[in-house]
Specification:
alpha/beta, TIM Barrel, Cyclin A, domain 1, 3 domains, eight-stranded parallel barrel, globular, binds cobalt (II) ion
Length: about 475
């Protein structure tokens, strides 16, 4: 028996513990070592890394990916893709999605884990087709289910989703428990059910330690036949991050289960990241709050990244005294929206609306553009019926959401060409154009800075002489 590990330190651990602020330069040196660890894959790109590179780190996300590829030639590099939302927070046209997937593979990605926040699988089709179209022999299209609990999310429903992913042509299935609320009991029922239904497909468990349940859940998942578990090198594990790689390795060994990991190498990886972590604790990029265990998340079903975001936003607004009230408002907003899983962009949407409701002292006095679009059906079909009252308020009495994908109703196929025109000589590559389509303001700033830097290569250093 074999259970393999996906190492998440470069992406999800980074994203969950320090709001994705880890620059490439901080981990470049360890990549050749990580390449020898024997991981199933290294999750290193996608999610919020792309946005963070452009917005905060003045890095070209594509260059980062190429650098990782160069330094880890033997490891499967994995990214997280939000289906039709790519790495942004809105739906892109099909031509953009196809091009993005093509460029991701061309720049070094092997495994594309694709999910839709609402589990509306119509939103995975374009990314899946593109993955197949541009696949190399190493490419894997992984269909991912956003796991959540609600009156409508039963084991039967999840098993049905897995069958659908298989029929669509995905090669592996990932259960993505972004809030860390999957209990050992639920993991057992789910994984056994899924294995029975689609046994020939590898099943992957992605969970977070937020509520303190992850190690128990992983144990049950292993006993129930899971094939791959996501984990983070131990100093970047726990809290809102994944369970620890070395710890799971140790436990698997006692079960007599092969993981393929090299013990010496995974320890060396952890030793490398210890001072990196300390640096970001010292400069407060890493909030000790995200390193603890919060069993309240079992009530609120709030993923780690969402918690740290809410803390950051409320701190900025000097309204941290409203934190508990905002957290308590989340389940109410979620119910009104038909129990969407709290994952990007729904987590932001629900979180921001809950904060607004609390700050305004009245529910839905102000409704965000995103929530309005959600009710119009632009994100897909809600898992359960939405609040009729709120729907009428947004769409007008008796208004109905669209019943097709938003791309089908609005598709122009012009997004890429228009972006290229907009950028003019700022764009050198298709990757530049794609960065701009995904994050226009941040990418333009980045590309302008790059151009200015190149034009200002001074022949000598000017020093003040006076
Ligand atoms: Co995650």
């Amino acid at each position: 028996m074999k259970v393999q590990i996906t190492e998440t330190v470069l992406r999800d651990a980074n994203q969950s513990l320090m709001a994705t602020r880890l620059p490439y330069a901080d981990y470049e040196k360890i990549l050749p070592v990580m390449d020898k660890a024997g991981y199933y894959s290294v999750e290193c790109w996608g999610g919020a890394t792309f946005d963070s590179c452009l917005r905060y780190l003045n890095e070209d996300p594509w260059e980062r990916l190429r650098n990782i590829r160069r330094n880890m030639p033997n490891t499967r590099l994995q990214m997280l893709l939000r289906g039709q939302n790519l790495l942004g927070y809105k739906h892109y046209h099909d031509d953009v999605v196809e091009k993005f997937v093509e460029l991701s593979i061309r720049n070094g990605i092997d495994i594309i884990r694709i999910f839709d926040a609402l589990n509306d699988f119509r939103n995975l089709g374009t990314a899946l087709d593109a993955t197949m179209k541009y696949a190399t022999p190493k490419t894997v299209a992984s269909g991912c289910i956003s796991y959540t609990q609600s009156p409508v999310h039963t084991v039967e429903k999840y098993v049905e989703m897995c069958r659908e992913l298989k029929n669509m042509g995905f090669q592996t299935i990932c259960l993505k428990d972004m809030a860390g609320t999957m209990s050992p009991f639920e993991a057992e029922g789910l994984i056994k059910g899924i294995k029975d239904a689609v046994g020939d497909m590898p099943v992957i468990l992605h969970t977070h330690c937020t509520t303190g349940m992850a190690y128990m859940t992983v144990t049950k998942a292993v006993e129930s036949g899971v094939d791959v578990v996501d984990a983070a090198t131990s100093c970047f594990s726990n809290g809102t991050s994944q369970p620890a790689t070395e710890t799971i390795f140790y436990a698997l060994q006692q079960y007599g289960i092969e993981s393929g990991l090299d013990e010496k190498v995974i320890n060396e990886v952890n030793d490398f990241f210890k001072p990196v972590k300390q640096k970001y604790l010292d400069n407060k990029t890493m909030n000790p709050k995200s390193l603890g265990t919060d069993s309240q998340a079992l009530v609120y079903k709030v993923p780690g990244g969402m918690l740290s975001n809410m803390i950051a936003n409320l701190t900025d607004m000097h309204a941290m005294d409203k934190f508990d009230a905002a957290l308590a408002e989340i389940p109410a907003v979620r119910k009104d929206l038909g129990y969407p899983p709290l994952v990007t962009p729904l987590s932001q949407m629900v979180g921001n609306q809950a904060v607004t409701n609390v700050l305004m002292g009245e529910r839905y006095k102000q409704i965000s553009k995103e929530v309005k679009n959600y009710f119009k059906g632009e994100y897909g079909i809600a898992p359960a019926p939405v609040s009729k009252e709120l729907q009428d308020k947004i769409l007008g009495e008796g208004g109905e959401p669209i019943d097709c994908r938003i791309e089908d109703s609005k598709r122009t196929g012009e997004e890429f060409r228009k972006a290229k025109e907009d950028l003019g000589d700022l764009a050198r590559t298709e990757e530049d154009i794609m960065s701009y389509i995904c994050f226009p303001d941040q990418a333009r700033k980045f590309l302008e800075a790059r151009k200015a830097k190149e034009e200002n290569i001074a022949p000598y250093t000017i020093e003040a002489i006076d």
